[in-house]
Amino acid sequence: MADLKYKYALTSSDEIVDISTITEECRVNEYRCPACGKPMSFVIQKKHINWSNYFRHKEDGVSCHPNAYLHRLAEIKIKERFDRTRPFKIGLKRIITCSADCEICDKAKCSLEAEEDVLDLHDWYDTCTLEKRVNPENINGSKYYVADLLLSQSKNPENKPILIEVWVTHE
Known about the structure:
This protein has one helix spanning 66-84, and strands at residues 8-10, 16-18, 31-32, 39-43, 54-57, 89-97, 111-120, 127-134, 145-152, 162-164. The chain is mainly beta and 171 residues long. The strands form 4 sheets. It has a 3-stranded antiparallel sheet with strand order 3-4-5, with no helix packed on it. Strands 8-9-10 form a 3-stranded antiparallel sheet, covered by helices on one side. Strands 1-2 form a two-stranded antiparallel sheet. A hairpin with a 6-residue loop joins β3 (31-32) and β4. The longest helix is centred in the middle third of the chain and has 19 residues, at 66-84. It starts with 7 loop residues before the first strand and ends in a 7-residue tail after the last strand.
């Protein structure tokens, strides 16, 4: 993967920065790769008007797999959105199953898809943690599990947390 070009990097204060916001004066700042944490530099295309500016790893031969880069970037952006946005709404589709003979479809039991329920996660959770190691009742026989993002309630730690997994796909 020779010299991949990246649109985003982390600042020294762990903020995501978009290459489109970088100017010549920003050369004194330090930037890191969101995926591997290694130093990045930015390239400003002065000679070619139609070429885009980009970040790249400073060290020759170093580049992160695009999926790892996108995965980590998504984790950071979701956490940033949770921390800064109120309300933080999600939609959940729920299936309603008839408990007796269904009068609508004449089946013993049927399942109907209900409308989407919209929930504000801030009603139940106030903390979002990246890459959190947890051991909730020995999941899948393993000793622990690392959640990409863990939503928890600092004021009521007995509330069950939500573990969020980020899945990068190009389908």
